[in-house]
Amino acid sequence: MSFHEIRFPTAISRGAQGGPERRTDVVVLGSGYEERNSRWAASRRSYNAGYGVQSIDALYEVIAFFEERRGRFHGFRWRDHADWKSGAPGSAPAAVDQAIGLGDGTATSFQLSKTYGGGYAPLTREIRKPVAGSVLVAVDGAARTPGADFTVDTTTGFVTLATPPAPGAVVSAGFEFDVPVRFDTDKLEVNLSGFRSGAIPNIPIVEIRL
Hints:
Blueprint: E1 3-7, H1 10-13, E2 17-21, E3 24-28, E4 34-38, E5 44-48, H2 56-68, E6 75-78, E7 98-102, E8 109-111, E9 113-116, E10 123-126, E11 129-130, E12 136-139, E13 142-144, E14 150-153, E15 158-161, E16 170-174, E17 177-183, E18 191-192, E19 198-199, E20 204-207
Parallel strand pairs: 1-6
Antiparallel strand pairs: 2-5, 3-4, 5-20, 6-17, 7-16, 8-15, 9-10, 11-17, 12-13, 12-16, 14-15, 17-20, 18-19
């Protein structure tokens, strides 16, 4: 079991359906009041890639990708076309998009993250699979130079600064990212409707924790 640092074909994932899922237990008491308990600290995303298979070439591309991953065995990268940037969907990543930590004069490594919301109960999501070459970093709003001032581990999402930020300095980042996933089936039900077109009705994909 391992993780393959390769992305599922982007042209096919663009047509997929899916998104975040949470697990909440809701108990209705005799009085009519409710007790609610959130079982997961973070969402888990799932998708169906079958909607993106629109040609026989795409069909065989998925089969080859599935076989190389050995079905559910190996994880891989997935582009969630609804949520793959540090900022707004229509804007390019900027170094001040997301605050990822505060300097203490000693620490040099910071985990990339993205915060959702802000008015009541903001959620911070760790970003483990940034896209190579996309990460921008700033300290107190001053941009840092990739390679000279910082490096990025694209397999874990950790940013390492060459110099520890001063105590209280805000470390921020902008980036593109993928979701770590696996196939959620060991069997593909292939439907060939002709020599020029094909379809896979169900290709379940599920996010994995790393």
